[in-house]
Amino acid sequence: MKAVLDACVLYPTVLREILQGAAQAGLYQPVWSERILGEWTRATAKLGPVVQVQAEGEAALLRAGFPRAMVAAQPGIEARLVLPDDNDRHVLAVAIASGADAIVTFNAADFPGHVLAGEGIARRDPDGFLWELQSRHPEVMARIVEEVRAKAERLSGGPVALKGLMKRAKLFRLGKALGA
Predict the structure, then answer these.
(1) What is the pLDDT of residues 9-37, one digit of tens each?
(2) 100: Cβ–Cβ under 8 A, 6 or more apart, which residues?
(3) What is the per-residue pLDDT for 180?
(4) 102 and 75 in contact (C-beta within 8 Å)?
(5) Listed residue (99, 75, 101, 102) closest to 89, CA to CA
(6) Which is nearest to 74 in space by CA: 108, 100, 42, 53?
(7) Could you give the CA distance from residue 176 to residue 67 in angstroms, rounded to a whole number?
(8) Any idea of the CA torsion for 65, 105, 154, 143, to the nearest 10 degrees?
(9) What's the pLDDT tens digit per position in 44-55?
(10) CA gyration radius, the chain
(11) pTM value?
């Protein structure tokens, strides 16, 4: 399965790391563009210049770790698309050009189901997408989430409960499936 990761799902660290872990495990093939990665890293600027530099470094690691994920801009496809927010047309154009099955996003209103269906693409919220991966590959997803939780614990210097971590990441269904 190929899935375009919208900038909004790359922004939250825990969510991004779980999505990245699932892709590294071969559970799906991620897709993005330079513009998507740029939107994510620019959005971190509001958290300060250090955070933006960290995000740019993480984006570089994503580029290196998933070279097949990068899809070039598609102005020809983008020009024919109509979405509620013109700034999101590039995301759908990348999905069409890459042959993606889905766009993983929090922005349901910006990607109307009927428009995506006409292109053979589904809109997936990140919680439902990861829950589906977990239902098909429970051991793998449990390991990925535990690695992310353990990393959060190391970085915070204290215990990090899985339930709280999943709640902050807005991964309610996944957390419930994992017993959080």
Answers:
(1) 999 999 999 999 999 999 999 999 999 99
(2) 2, 3, 4, 31, 94, 121
(3) 63
(4) no
(5) 75
(6) 100
(7) 33
(8) -70
(9) 888 888 888 889
(10) 16
(11) 0.94
What secondary structure does DSSP assign to 102-150, as a single string?
EEE-S-GGGS-HHHHHHTT-EEE-HHHHHHHHHHH-HHHHHHHHHHHHH
Is 175 in contact with 127 (CB distance < 8 Å)?
no
Q: Give the model confidence (pLDDT) of 58-83 as tens digits.
A: 999 999 999 999 999 899 999 999 99
Burial category of 85 from C-beta neighbours within 10 Å (exposed 0-12, middle 13-18, buried 19 and up): exposed
Q: How far apart are CA 2 and CA 167, in angstroms?
A: 26
Q: Nearest 5°: phi and psi at 3?
A: -140, 125
Q: Please give the structure tokens belonging to residue 81.
A: 């698309």
Give the pair of three-digit tokens for residue 152. 């959060």
CB 111 within 8 A of CB 118: no
